[in-house]
Design a protein that fits this description.
Elements lengths: L13 H6 L17 E4 L6 H9 L3 E4 L10 H15 L3 H4 L6 H23 L1
Parallel strand pairs: 1-2
Protein name: Transposase IS4-like domain-containing protein
InterPro entries: Transposase_11 (IPR002559)
Pfam family, one: DDE_Tnp_1
Length: 124
């Protein structure tokens, strides 16, 4: 994961993020090094990005610009939006006060740990 300024467009970090994905463990055999699909909204709809994803063997599921809403991606994106809502319960993550990326990353890791702990407590 990389931390950038709030004024940077997300699409600039898509390709470096894909390159940084660690091997994915699963069933027996060699671990996968890439996801099967990439889900994204209209902001990521660029032909160069689609070509790059296909070359890497990743199916792009990206809403087309200019198409009507209701593409069905909202049901999948809900998981991401819900996670952001959980993270925004922590004020220091909602409004970034830290100038150093390592401090911000540490607070983000701590918040994720607390969220997981709370979820585990409610499930038992």
């Amino acid at each position: 994961m990389s931390v950038t300024g709030g004024n940077r467009h997300d699409v600039t970090q898509m390709l470096p993020l894909l390159a940084a994905i660690p091997p994915i463990r699963g069933v027996r055999g060699r671990p996968r090094r890439k996801p099967r699909r990439l889900y994204a909204d209209r902001g990521y709809d660029y032909p160069s990005h689609r070509r790059h994803l296909w070359k890497r063997g990743i199916k792009p599921v990206i809403a087309r610009r200019g198409s009507p809403h209701g593409s069905g991606l909202g049901t999948i994106r809900w998981v991401v939006e819900r996670t952001f809502a959980w993270l925004h319960q922590f004020k220091r993550l909602r409004i970034r006060y830290e100038h150093r990326a390592d401090l911000h990353q540490g607070l983000l890791d701590l918040a994720c740990s607390l969220i997981c702990l709370r979820r585990l407590r409610t499930s038992f």
